[in-house]
Specification:
Protein name: Zinc-dependent metalloprotease
Domain DUF5118: 61-110
Structural class: alpha+beta
Oligomer: single chain
Domain EcxA zinc-binding: 443-747
Signal peptide: 1-31
Shape: globular
Number of helices: 26
Keywords: Hydrolase, Metalloprotease, Protease, Signal
Number of strands: 30
């Protein structure tokens, strides 16, 4: 058998760019490798004195019986463990030295009120690493191997790669004794688990949030260490000295209960499956120096569970066969009992997809065993996948997974389920379907209604734990009018993939008879699971399997049912969250028609005797949010490009521009539905129950924000590129300005909203004319930025400023004179703004790090942040992280 050397973790391409963009908002920092501090004492004023291994006087290696004496609590398993006089020992057999073990640390319990990005509740992950226990003379080291760089042991590059990638040492331990037959060593791990070790403790984010200065040993202890056949579970209670507690600052501390699982990785790694950008899977990358190519080659593997048929012969005959090891998800015992059957159903629904890969009963949801049924069962145990239920007001759910960094094999998952996801589901189901769905016209859904919505979200999150990312291109496969058909939606739901954000059917109109209103596991999901989980007989290599899979993928190319559209890019209008159908303008027109039916009925449908109007206020904001989503879906068509990943053996472009007529239709839609004041949103009867004089600002914010979105330099850059490549077939910047002018500037006496909008248009143009624009992210190329919609452009030397200058002069020349006092003052003000834009009197603001900055308000933000240079977060959706 060949040996392989691998080292480090690596991100590139899409994964790299997503990490770069996310880093501008918040980063989950992985713990840095560090040398173990074995002794911690607290001095005057809370200062900490530390000593590392080797500082204390060494006692020498004793007989096993001299160390493990008296009253001993022993446990056998992966390592035999012993508790003697409050100290914990590991007996490590020689056979497990240098074996790779996956280590995952999770919260067990957290303080009330903990609010840190991505880490809040019991069951959520803090860190994961791979450890190797290595003996060196009279010591044992924990080494942390890395996996990004590799070369096969038969390659001439193997030794070179090995020489260049040394595994870090996380901790060291003196050998206390040998076991009786000298095939194992005994070490004391008490100080290690009690210490402030980043790899098995709080993340840097949490420490910074609560001003943590270190572990208080007097208020910390090891609760239990349990050994099982392939894993060790160490539970600790750690109290950190803290300057800011989420509960009570007078304590000067914050306390957590943590669990660290150490799981033995397979001695023979699973055969990896090489990823393909045309089929959506989470994955990992390695740089391989051992190939025959005349350069290093990046190889990416997908994340998937290891499924092998019990009966390979029957499987090869095309029969459905059970896997050797079933995928099992346990439901957290803390889950309200009425929701348990629906969460289980969401898990079991995926059996339909695994049948496409040749497996039956491949996955199952189960109620977690009671203490009586299995005293050793723990939801933190790394051997078990669990849907954890959080008592939280967060409107969210998410489905992570833990995988073998060598091969991508998924080993376990802890789905996070926040209690208040039900609030989100109620709001969206009502706002998106109540026009045609009388059952949604209420403040409180029945348990059966909510249960079915929970089942849908459960299926979506389980899909993530199977390795499937969001497929934002899926919903584009269904024509808009098909979603008004009862027969079609009864069979297909709202999208070919439950992994899209295609929530509920906002397109169907009263009288259509549509009753199936949300997604289901569909055609794309069956295809992707077949692609990722089909077992190939005959000991084919990963490269040989790739060749076979490429035949399947190429055959399906061009069929929108099997199209995968990645998350994160803003250039392709097909790849959007919360959208439905193949034409955003048509779909959004139907959606707005339904919102107009829903808005006047909010008070009636949510009436609750003796309650205030919080529900009406909340749902009015949801109407605004849904309306804004429709505007965003349409806007992405302007300057948009279609992205279709291909290989050499496929014809046609990977990138081509959105049709000229569609882009024009998008601007025309905005002129009619947004830039023409949407008075239907100003329902005095509803607003009178909660609005205290801010409706003008709300509508202005919607209009101005979307106008700014239309006029981003990156969008204009793509339009100039389109014109250069396609000439008359392109929708140009000149046509965009003409169309916007007709909808915003030209026309009768402007109302208060139109006046705001006209000022915003001039200010946006002023910003394009006088504010430098750039995006700079360390390590990111122009092509990577453009791939995510941040198309670079040198605004100083581009055609943007000549076009903007001409548009401002055109507006100025067409401004009418006279009118009432307010109208006259407005046009005079516009004239002065244009004059200042063409002849600026204030300095140009340049911000390190770059960004898109438009209008007076944006420039004020610029001035306050000249030393920061950050990019605001992408708009977040509520379900899923």
């Amino acid at each position: 058998m060949k040996k392989t050397f691998v080292a480090g973790q690596y991100m590139r391409g899409a994964a790299f760019m997503l990490a770069v963009l996310a880093a501008s908002c918040a980063t989950k920092k992985q713990a840095a490798n560090q040398t173990l501090t074995l002794k911690t004492t607290t001095g005057p004023g809370g200062t900490t004195a530390t000593a590392t291994t080797g500082a204390p006087k060494k006692e020498g290696i004793k007989k096993f019986s001299d160390v493990i004496t008296g009253k001993v609590k022993a446990d056998s398993g992966l390592f035999n463990t012993y508790k003697v006089d409050g100290k914990y020992y590991y007996e490590i057999p020689d056979s497990l030295l240098n074996r790779e073990m996956l280590v995952v640390t999770r919260y067990v319990k957290t303080p009330t009120g903990l609010k840190t990005f991505g880490q809040q509740y019991g069951g959520e992950e803090l860190n994961q690493q791979v450890w190797k226990w290595e003996r060196h003379d009279k010591q044992v080291f924990i080494r942390v191997p890395s996996y990004s760089v590799r070369a096969d042991s038969t390659s001439d590059m193997y030794q070179s790669v090995k020489n260049s990638n040394l595994d870090a040492v996380l901790a060291s331990f003196d050998i206390k004794a040998f076991n009786k037959d000298t095939t194992g060593v005994l070490i004391d791990v008490s100080d290690f688990y009690n210490g402030d070790i980043a790899a098995i403790g709080l993340s840097d984010d949490v420490k910074k949030a609560y001003k943590v200065s270190g572990v208080d040993a007097s208020r910390s202890y090891i609760d239990t260490i349990k050994s099982f056949p392939i894993n060790l579970e160490a539970r600790t209670l750690k109290t950190y000295r803290s300057g800011e507690s989420p509960t009570d600052n007078s304590n000067g501390a914050v306390t957590f209960e943590l669990n660290t699982s150490m799981l033995l990785l397979p001695k023979t790694p699973m055969k990896p499956r090489i990823s393909d950008a045309r089929v959506g899977f989470f994955g990992q990358s390695q740089t391989d120096f051992g190939t025959d190519k005349q350069k290093s080659e990046v190889t990416a593997y997908i994340h998937r569970w290891k499924l092998e048929p019990k009966d390979p012969a029957a499987y090869s005959r095309g029969e459905l066969v059970e896997p050797k090891k079933q995928i099992v998800y346990y439901i957290d015992p803390a889950t309200p009992k009425k929701w348990v059957p629906y969460l289980i159903a969401g898990v079991n629904d995926w059996n339909k997809a695994f049948e496409a890969a040749g497996f039956k009963n491949a996955i199952v949801g189960k109620v977690a065993p009671t203490k009586k049924e299995d005293p050793e069962f723990s939801t933190e145990d790394a051997r078990y996948s669990v849907i954890r239920y959080f008592a939280s007001d967060v409107e969210n759910a998410y489905g992570p997974h833990v995988s073998d960094p060598r091969t991508g094999e998924i080993l376990e998952s802890h789905v996070g389920w926040y209690h208040n996801v039900m609030s989100l589901l109620r709001d969206w189901y009502l706002i998106q379907t109540a026009a045609i769905n009388p059952a949604a016209r209420k403040a409180q859904f029945t348990d059966e209604q909510m249960g079915e919505l929970i089942r849908f979200v459960s299926s979506h999150e389980i899909g993530h734990t199977l390795g499937l990312p969001h497929n934002f291109g899926s919903s584009y496969a269904y024509p808009v009018d098909s979603l008004r058909s009862k027969s079609f939606t009864d069979k297909h739901g709202t999208a070919p993939s439950i992994m899209d954000y295609a929530r509920f059917n906002y397109i169907a109109q009263p009288g259509d008879g549509v009753t199936h209103l949300y997604p289901q596991i569909g055609e794309y999901d069956l295809w992707s699971v077949k692609w990722g989980y089909t077992w190939f007989p005959g000991n084919k290599t990963a490269a040989q399997e790739k060749e076979a899979l490429n035949v399947w993928t190429t055959k399906n190319a061009g069929n929108p049912l099997y199209y995968y559209g990645r998350q994160g890019t803003s250039i392709d209008p097909r790849l959007q969250n919360e959208d439905l159908g193949d034409n955003a303008m048509k779909a959004s027109t139907y959606g707005i028609a339904n919102l107009k039916r829903i808005l006047p009925n909010l008070e009636k449908w949510t009436y609750q005797k003796g309650e205030d109007y919080d529900d009406v206020s909340e749902l009015y904001n949801e109407v605004l949010g849904q309306y804004y989503r429709y505007m965003g879906h349409v806007t992405t068509n302007i300057g948009g490009m279609n992205e279709n990943f291909k290989t050499y053996d496929q014809k046609g472009p990977v990138y081509d521009f959105v049709n000229k007529n569609l882009q024009h239709d998008a601007v025309d839609f905005l002129n009619k539905q947004l830039f023409t004041t949407p008075y239907w949103l100003i329902d005095k009867n509803e607003l009178g129950k909660f609005d205290n004089g801010v409706v003008i600002n709300r509508i202005k914010a919607l209009q101005v924000s979307m106008l700014s979105n239309v006029l981003t330099p990156s969008r204009l850059a793509r339009m100039f590129d389109n014109e250069a490549k396609n000439g008359p077939a392109a929708y140009t910047v000149a046509q965009l300005f003409t169309d916007l002018n007709s909808g915003i500037v030209t026309g009768a006496k402007p109302d208060v909203f139109k006046r705001n909008l006209q000022r915003a248009y001039v200010e946006n143009l002023k910003g394009l004319l006088n504010t430098d624009f750039s995006f700079t992210f360390p390590g990111a190329t122009s092509a990577q930025l453009a791939s995510y919609g941040l198309t670079p452009i040198n605004i100083l030397l581009s055609d943007i400023r000549p076009m903007v200058r001409a548009e401002l002069k055109k507006i100025d020349a067409a401004l009418p004179k006279g009118g009432d006092a307010l109208t006259s003052a407005h046009f005079a003000d516009l004239h002065l703004r244009i004059k200042e834009a063409l002849n600026p009197t204030r300095p140009i603001v340049n911000i390190p790090g770059g960004g898109s900055f438009r209008g007076i308000e944006a420039q004020e933000i610029l001035k306050e942040n000249t030393d920061k240079g950050y990019l605001n977060c992408w708009p977040k959706t509520n379900v899923d992280n």
